[in-house]
Structures are given as structure tokens and as C-alpha cells.
Design brief:
The complex is a heterodimer of chains A (about 425) and B (about 475). Chain A has about 425 residues and is α/β, with parallel strands linked by helices. Chain A has 17 helices and 14 strands. Chain B is an alpha/beta fold. The radius of gyration of chain B is 23 Å and the shape is globular. The chains are: A alpha/beta (about 425), B alpha/beta (about 475).
């Protein structure tokens, strides 16, 4: 049978409007239906400078579906340039305009030829999901905005950083911030294009970076490889988003070695960071160890990024045992076997099973049948609330859709982030007693 | 216009109700054009993202408990499923009810756009039944299923024969209507044509069409006072309950935009009277509405007694706060009904309506009559004032606010309130449809306004630190300067 989308965990490729939205002063223009942006903007943090209700949209109606929408797109771009003040306008196309065969790229080109800052990405919803849409936006930026024959000189110590999916991952901002700080600690400057104070000037620095750092099991990898091909910027793929002392220290060492930094200095830094981290862990170990109800085994139902990151933290830092883990973002088949390996090299030879799914109902069936040797620890999204009640699990929602929790700029990344994660887990655990 | 329940499809609002999404004029002109049926839509050569009828359907039909909704669409069209389910679960738990409605999608992909996805749809319908055993399955359509010409009705007819529950299509292709409120009619059409049964006996209850029944307890008590029960639609209802709405004494509603199709449909098909007065917001609205209910169900004396008691309790308090609000200038941005109903309340409270932006505008309802709230406002306003039909266009609203510089901006629907605040204008987000319902809530609405305009800290702090996205050029233009001429 075809795919059943039961408990939707991703949006369509047009959801890449959120990728554009998270780059300051870069504005998406939608050549799409009137409701597309409305439906894709679920989640919080949507009233920034450019926000879904600000996005120009052709709001395709029956007339354009029948007679074509290219003229409608042309006048929308033309007026967007007059009405809204942006540094760059990114035209993204939805299902309707692509099925009816509008040549949006050509319309956009006519503006580029006049020197207008407009580029184009094909993001029809039926072509893929918003994770792929993110890559297509990055690639459009690299190919149409950067690759114009300019020469770029390398800036020593500058590192392009790509990690979480902007706006879709509730912690995207905090994660990038935490990675930026970790890199600064070892003397590298992160070049990030998403979030406050970044924007076009950082996009322009991308080809100058010494290397690109992709901190994700798969997302962003192919875009970073494109940078290598086009501009000769090498790529360090670090699959695991580092959470906690064990993984963060490993991350800092590996990046230091790749960047040929003074490794002794990094080791000193790590010793200081770990010392402070374990000051807290020591003080709160009574809560972690001397309670009647904390779980022994856990499951993460999220995207591959968190399935891996939180599994490694809970195993390698906290000494818990993994049940089956689930990556729900429709991970492209070509990445799956590599990602499976990442779940196999944990302390004491512990391995976790990772399942790539899109159907939440199947996942919940498995969770209900699994034996967690006590109360399960279930880390997921709003969809897991019900199965958590049914299995008496300790439940923490961390992934989109995240409906009953507000995340502004916090993160579980690094030494500090792990403490925040422990606060959140035990704030749930402490609501019960047995 | 007669509502035809034998077809799976129905006329969109532009055709049935002469609805428009672009107009600029005055309240008196709008009232007169509505009476003459001469209103013409004006398109735009620039627009910002709006909403579609499919989103409206998903949000609305999901109020019903223990059904399944299958969205025959690419994944993004179903992206709102979880937040909708969470909200409806919260509404149910407020009443101690369980909520088990599910929303699934067919996740249409590229090959589906070429070869069709009837097979996937069929499998998904059967699998959904096996997984959840819902009371019915509603299949909603999308732009993609519409453009590729998928024969959804046939798949539904076939699976409907195999399953012991109703399988019901809801046609809501996002491009079909420029008026997203057409989605309310799509949902109502499905319920009226496939769920509502002919009356088995006459009940002692009134249908009340609304959104989230936030004022439920007060409304139940109010109708108990005149000796009838109330059945709130659709929040927390079951299909079995809905099958009986043809047995009601009357249908009433909180919003003319919301209830025209169901109210008039029940009246035409099953003889249930539909109360068509102005809506129960503010004092005049409430009294007109409640008296008409009393008249229609033969409870005039009881209704009058209720009004008498409430007046004694609240009118003196309202007079007190009115003195403090006198003369404030207000701009409103709301739907086709609320915009004009809340404007009436504003005038009642002694404030001045400086401008109304209606998101869309229905120039008549399904019984053929022009919207009474616009006629009322045109007759009772101290002076004519400007209005537009602005389709939630943020750039137009900020331009209007910049031009009129009101003391207060009121909006329903997300997407403009926060922007008015960012531009330094005190604003109230009136998402709760009961915010100025009846005497008690009109009073609390008045105090909400007073609080809002008294403490302007948030807007002062925020607006002084941010830059708005629009160019100076745009602020120098008329708000309707990017409209096309009426055709």
C-alpha cells in the first residue's frame, strides 16, 4: 500500500519557507496556494521581522490554475520589491504552480537580469519534505547568490556551521548558539547564517570559511559537499549533536584535530569544563540515583539528530539503557545504513536499534509492546503524549509538533545544555512517586 | 438560494453569497450595494499569504469527537493536525470528555501527481478504519487532488460500501474559493447531507453554532432560565448527537459567517427555524437576538424576564465604564460578521469606529437576505466611515493604522494584532468569539479595553526597539493602491 501519514512529523518542501524566514532580512515569496503558508507556519516564534503573514504570496486561485500564474508571480515580485524592504527575495514554488507548469525560474531570471536581488528554489510539496526543502534553499543560495564568478579568500579559523532544521526544530536557535560558543572556546569563529545578527553578510562569508562543519547525522551534508565542489571549502561531518560531557569533549577534540588547533589547549579547556559540569552532577547525583521512580530504559521518537544525540547522552553520560529509537523525518534511504552504524559505538559495546519510520501509529504499537523494565522514559513530540499515558511513561516533548511547551532559545547542546535536559527530565519525574 | 444536499459538492461563497475579498468604500455604500446585489470584487496585484478553505475545514470539522479525517494531500497540507488535535483534546478535557478524533494524510508525492493516488487513498481509508474504528471517516481534498482530477468521490463510494460507517467527502480544494470561510460551508454540507437524519421527534433544545464553546456554562444556564436546553455545535459533539439537530426548536449562532449554510440548510430541509438577527454581541445585539429566539420558540415572556434581570445587574456598571472609554477611536480587522458586530459594540460603548477592515464580505446569506449587521451599522452609525475588505492583508492593515492612528486596534484571527502592537498601537486579540457576548462579557470587554489603553508598556517597549518590514514608499501610498479595478 501507499504511505499513510499518521501523526505528521514533517511538513512538505515548501516548509522550507521557514529556512528562509530564519535568515535575517531574507524574504520568501510564495508562488503557491492561499493557505500554504498558514498551514506550514505551525509552531512558535512566528512574529519576527519577516513572518508568515508578511510573506508575499500569489495566493493561486482557480483563474491562475486554469490560465497559468506566471503574470501573477511577476506582479507579486515586482510589488514585493516596492512594498517590503529586504536584502534578498527567495521565490519558492508550491504544488499548484509546479503542476500547472509555470516557469517560475524564468520569471525570477528576468528580475535577476535587471540586477534585482531575487533567487528561486523549487520546493513543490509533493517533491519532498521540509528537511529536503532546507537543502534546496541552501543549494539555491550557494548556486544563485554566491556562485557568480567572484573570487573568495579563505579566512583562517572561520567555520560554516550547519546543524538543526531552523524553526522546525524547536531548539534550532539554541543549538546553533551553543555550537557557536563551543567553537569560540577552542578559538574558532562560527559562520552561521540563521538567527539574530547573521543574514546576508554571513552567507557571503561562506566560501571564505576554512571548512564547513555539519553537526547532524545527515541533514545539510549534501549542501556542505556542494560548497566543497564549488568553492573548495572542505567539510567535516560530525554526525552527533553533542549533549553532555562525554560527547561534547569528544566533539571539541575532533574539531580541534581537524582544524589543526593546539590540542593541548583544547584538553585543558575540556578539563575545566568537565570539572565544573561534574561539580553539578555530583551535587545532584542524589536525585538521579536515589529515587524510586526514574526509568532505566528509554526511547526517543524524534528526528535522527535527537534520536542519536539523546541516546548517546543517556547511555554514555547517564548510564541508562536504550530501547528502540525512532527517526521520523523520512530519512533518505541513502543515509540510513550509515546512521545505523552511529548507534553502534557507545560505551561498553552498547548498541541501540534505530528504526526509520514515517507512520507514528506503528511506532506507538511497538512502544506499547516493549518491556522497559519499569517506567519508560519517552522523549518525543506532542504525538507521544497519549502513548506515554497508556504506558505510564515519563514523557518529555522536545520535537515538532511541540504544542504544550514553549521553547525560546534554550538548548540541550554541550555541557550546559545537558544540565538543562536533566532539569527538564527530572521536572517530569518528580511529579510522580511510587 | 436553495441548498442542494444531493450533490457531494456545493457552490462556493463567491457564487452563493456574492462574497468579495477586495473592496474599498464606506459603510453606507456597502449596505446599499448589499441590498442591490451590485457589489463587485476587486483583485490585488500584490498579496500576502492568506488562508484556504481546506485549513478552515480541518480546524472546524475536527471539533467533532471520535471521527477520522483523511486529508488527501501532500504532507504540508496536514501539518496543522497535531496542534488542532491538542486544542480539541484540551477543550474536551475541560468538560471531562475524551477526544479520539484522528487526522491522517495520504502524503501525496510526485508520482501521485502523474498517476493519481486513488489506490493510496483507498488503502488509507481502510487502514484508518482498522486502526481507529471511528464513527465516520471524512475525506478532505486539496489543491493537488483537485488539479490532477482525482476521482475522490468514486473511491469514497466504493469504500463506503465496504465499511460499516459513513465515508464522507469534503470538497475543499484550496484554490477553489478566494474565501476561506467557504470551508465552514464545506464542513456543514458534509454534515447536513450525510449525518443529519430527518427528525424522529421534536426536541426541547436549540442548536447553537459556535467555535470553542468557551461561554458554555453561562449559555446553558441562560437557556435553562427560559426552559430549554442548548446543543453547542460542533465542539465536543458526537455524530450520533449531530444526527438529531433536525429535531431542534431553532438554530442560533454566534456568527453569521459561520452558520449561514447549516442554519439555512436546516431551515430549508427540516423546517428548523434559523434566527437571522444581528448577533448577540453587546447589549443591542444580545437583546434583539434573545427576543427573537423567545418569539420563535414561544418563550417571549421568559426571555423578557431574563433580559430584565440582567439589565438591572449590568447596565449601571456598563454606564460607569462607558464614561472612561468615551471618544476613543478604534480600527477593527475581523471576519465578515464579527467586524461589523463588534463595531456596533464599540459604538454602544461610546467609542468611535474609525475604520473597519473586513477579511472577506458576504453580500448576502443563504436565504438571500443582506447581512443584517451591516444594515444595522449603516443605519445607526453617527456618521459614515471608511471600510475595506482586506483579506487579512497585513501590509494594508499597517498602512491603515498608520493613516488613522487609532487609540485601539481590535482583531480576530492571528496575524495582525501583534503587528499593530509592533507599530505602537494598543491592540486586543479577540479570538474568543464570546469576548463581548451578552451583558456580563460586554462589561468585561469594556474593562479589557480600558486596561489595554491604560497600560501601554508592552507596545511602547517593543515598538521603540524594532523596525517594521515595510518601505517608506508603501506608507506613503493609499492602503488600496495595489487593488485592481473591479471587473
Amino acid at each position: 500500500m501507499g504511505r499513510t501519514l499518521d501523526q505528521v512529523r514533517y511538513k512538505c518542501a515548501l516548509g522550507a519557507m521557514q529556512t528562509v524566514q530564519s535568515i535575517e532580512r531574507v524574504l520568501p515569496i510564495l508562488h503557491a496556494g492561499p493557505g500554504c503558508s498558514d498551514k506550514l507556519s505551525t509552531g512558535n516564534g512566528n512574529s519576527g521581522h519577516f513572518a508568515p503573514r508578511i510573506f508575499p504570496c500569489t495566493n493561486l486561485s482557480e483563474k491562475e490554475i486554469v490560465f497559468g500564474g506566471e503574470e501573477r508571480l511577476r506582479e507579486t515580485i515586482e510589488n514585493a520589491l516596492r512594498v517590503i524592504d529586504a536584502d534578498l527575495y527567495v521565490v519558492i514554488t508550491g504544488c499548484s504552480s509546479e503542476i500547472i507548469g509555470d516557469d517560475s525560474a524564468e520569471v525570477v531570471n528576468s528580475f535577476r537580469l535587471q540586477g534585482k536581488p531575487v533567487i528561486h528554489a523549487s520546493t513543490a510539496g509533493f517533491k519532498g519534505n521540509n528537511y529536503l526543502g532546507y537543502e534546496w534553499i541552501l543549494q539555491a543560495l550557494f548556486e544563485q547568490f554566491l556562485d557568480d564568478g567572484r573570487e573568495y579568500e579563505t579566512e583562517k579559523g572561520l567555520v560554516n556551521v550547519f546543524a538543526s532544521l531552523p524553526l522546525h526544530d524547536p531548539f534550532w536557535y539554541g543549538n546553533l548558539d551553543a555550537l557557536e560558543n563551543l567553537l569560540a572556546d577552542i578559538g574558532l569563529e562560527a559562520n552561521i547564517i540563521f538567527g539574530y545578527g547573521k543574514g546576508l553578510k554571513n552567507i557571503e562569508r561562506i566560501p571564505r570559511a576554512e571548512f564547513s562543519l555539519v553537526v547532524n547525522p545527515w541533514l545539510g551534508l549534501e549542501s556542505a559537499q556542494l560548497l566543497e565542489q564549488k568553492f573548495g571549502v572542505p567539510c567535516l561531518h560530525y554526525p552527533n549533536l553533542p549533549v553532555g560531557a562525554f560527547e561534547t569533549s569528544k566533539f571539541l577534540m575532533e574539531v580541534s584535530e581537524f582544524a589543526k588547533l593546539d590540542v593541548e589547549k583544547t584538553k585543558k579547556l575540556i578539563a575545566d569544563k568537565e570539572s565544573k559540569y561534574y561539580y553539578y552532577i555530583e551535587r545532584f547525583a542524589d536525585i538521579f540515583l536515589e529515587n524510586r521512580i526514574m526509568s532505566k530504559r528509554f526511547t526517543v521518537v524524534s528526528d535522527a539528530q535527537y534520536a542519536l544525540a539523546l541516546t548517546r547522552f543517556l547511555v554514555n553520560d547517564m548510564g541508562l539503557f536504550p530501547q528502540k529509537q525512532y527517526a521520523m523525518e523520512d530519512v533518505p534511504a541513502r543515509h540510513q545504513s550509515t546512521i545505523r552504524e552511529y548507534f553502534k559505538d557507545m560505551n561498553y559495546g552498547i548498541e541501540a536499534e534505530i528504526s526509520f519510520e514515517t507512520d507514528g501509529h506503528t511506532v506507538h504499537d511497538e512502544i506499547e509492546k516493549a518491556d522497559y523494565m519499569g517506567y519508560p522514559l519517552l522523549i518525543g513530540s506532542a504525538w507521544e503524549k497519549k502513548v506515554a499515558v497508556e504506558t505510564a511513561a515519563h514523557f518529555l516533548s522536545i520535537s515538532w509538533p511541540l504544542n504544550e511547551r514553549l521553547v525560546i532559545n534554550s538548548s540541550y547542546v554541550g555541557y550546559e545544555g545537558a544540565l538543562k535536559f536533566l532539569e527538564d527530565i527530572y521536572s517530569v519525574v518528580l511529579t510522580r512517586y511510587t | 438560494m436553495t441548498i442542494d444536499l444531493n450533490s457531494t459538492t456545493f457552490g462556493k461563497r463567491e457564487e452563493r453569497l456574492g462574497s468579495v475579498v477586495g473592496y474599498v468604500g464606506t459603510i453606507k455604500d456597502l449596505a446599499s450595494q448589499s441590498r442591490c446585489g451590485s457589489l463587485k470584487d476587486r483583485g490585488r496585484c500584490f498579496s500576502q499569504s492568506s488562508s484556504c478553505d481546506a485549513g478552515c475545514v480541518l480546524g472546524y470539522i475536527s471539533h467533532i469527537r471520535d471521527i477520522a479525517i483523511i486529508n488527501h494531500a501532500p504532507s504540508g497540507c496536514t501539518a496543522g493536525a497535531s496542534s488542532v488535535i491538542t486544542n480539541q483534546t484540551q477543550l474536551a478535557s475541560k468538560r471531562g470528555l475524551s477526544y479520539n478524533t484522528v487526522i491522517l494524510g495520504t502524503d501525496m508525492n510526485e508520482s501521485d501527481t502523474i498517476f493519481g493516488a486513488a489506490g493510496t487513498l483507498r488503502d488509507t481509508i481502510l487502514e484508518t478504519y482498522n486502526r481507529y474504528k471511528p464513527a465516520a471517516i471524512f475525506v478532505t481534498t486539496s489543491c493537488v487532488s483537485g488539479i490532477i482530477g482525482e476521482d475522490v468521490d468514486s473511491v469514497i463510494a466504493e469504500t463506503g460500501e465496504e465499511l460499516p460507517i459513513p465515508v464522507v467527502p469534503i470538497h475543499c480544494e484550496g484554490f477553489k474559493s478566494k474565501v476561506w470561510a467557504t470551508g465552514f460551508d464545506a464542513a456543514d454540507h458534509a454534515i447536513l447531507s450525510r449525518i443529519v437524519a430527518p427528525p424522529r421527534k421534536k426536541g426541547n433544545f436549540i442548536n447553537f453554532k459556535n467555535f470553542n464553546e468557551s461561554a458554555r456554562d453561562d449559555i446553558v444556564e441562560m437557556f435553562r432560565a427560559i426552559g430549554v436546553d442548548v446543543f453547542m455545535i460542533y465542539s465536543n459533539t458526537t455524530l450520533e448527537e449531530l444526527s438529531h439537530i433536525s429535531e431542534a426548536l431553532a438554530t442560533i449562532s454566534i456568527c453569521g459567517t459561520l452558520a449561514s449554510y447549516l442554519g439555512n440548510g436546516l431551515e430549508q430541509q427540516h423546517g428548523v427555524p434559523y434566527i437571522k438577527t444581528i448577533n448577540p454581541l453587546g447589549v443591542a445585539g444580545f437583546e434583539t437576538w434573545f427576543r427573537d429566539i423567545g418569539r420563535v420558540i414561544g418563550k417571549e415572556a421568559e426571555a423578557e424576564a431574563y433580559i430584565e434581570r440582567e439589565r438591572a445587574l449590568y447596565l449601571p456598571k456598563l454606564e460607569e465604564v462607558k464614561a472612561k472609554l468615551k471618544g476613543l477611536r478604534v480600527v477593527l480587522g475581523m471576519g465578515s460578521s464579527f467586524a461589523f458586530q463588534v463595531a456596533r459594540v464599540i459604538q454602544e460603548l461610546g467609542m468611535e469606529v474609525a475604520y473597519i477592515a473586513s477579511w472577506h464580505y458576504d453580500s448576502r446569506y443563504d436565504d438571500g437576505s443582506p447581512p443584517p449587521h451591516v444594515q444595522y451599522l449603516a443605519e445607526h452609525s453617527p456618521r459614515d466611515f471608511n471600510i475595506s475588505v482586506a483579506d487579512q492583508q497585513n501590509f494594508e492593515i499597517l498602512n491603515i493604522l498608520n493613516q488613522y492612528k487609532p487609540d485601539l486596534y481590535l482583531a480576530r484571527h492571528p496575524g495582525t494584532t501583534v503587528w499593530a502592537v509592533k507599530q505602537g498601537v494598543p491592540s486586543i486579540f479577540m479570538a474568543d468569539e464570546y469576548m463581548s457576548f451578552g451583558y456580563k462579557r460586554t462589561l468585561s470587554f469594556a474593562y479589557t479595553i480600558l486596561d489595554r489603553i491604560t497600560n501601554r508598556s508592552f507596545e511602547k517597549n517593543l515598538s521603540s526597539r524594532i523596525k517594521l518590514p515595510y518601505t517608506d514608499w508603501w506608507y506613503r501610498q493609499e492602503s488600496a493602491s495595489l487593488y485592481q479595478e473591479a471587473k
